[in-house]
Amino acid sequence: MSKTFSGKEVVKALRRIGFVVDHQRGSHIFMHNLERNISVVVPLHKEIKKGTLNNILKKVGITIDELKDLV
Fold first, then answer.
1. What distance in Å separates the CA atoms of residue 9 and residue 13, rounded to the nearest whole number?
2. Exposure check for the chain: N or C terminus, fewer CB within 10 A?
3. Integer Cα distance of 51 and 58 in angstroms
4. Are 4 and 24 in contact (CB under 8 A)?
5. DSSP designation for 26
6. Nearest to residue 40, comparing CAs of 26, 25, 50, 55?
7. Using CA atoms, how far apart are residues 10 and 16, in angstroms rounded to an integer?
8. Dist CA 34 CA 20 (whole Å)
9. What pLDDT, in 10s, does the model give residues 26-63?
10. Helices (H), 1-71
11. Which helix (H) or strand (E) covers residue 1, if one does?
12. pTM score, two decimals?
């Protein structure tokens, strides 16, 4: 994984594939996709750690390359 992603970039990409912001608690945004019934939590940090990003991508069902294209 060469590029790091911020929380804002991940939220922007998830919105493009149908996720909506459910609510926010502190620096974490809770997003939900009503069609697929998937919820995911995105930390609004300057840089999301590798493991956290991989877990988000696995849960959403996209690859790192697809995320790069969406951002």
1. 6
2. N
3. 10
4. no
5. T
6. 55
7. 10
8. 8
9. 999 999 998 989 999 999 999 999 999 999 999 999 98
10. 7-16, 50-60, 64-70
11. none
12. 0.85
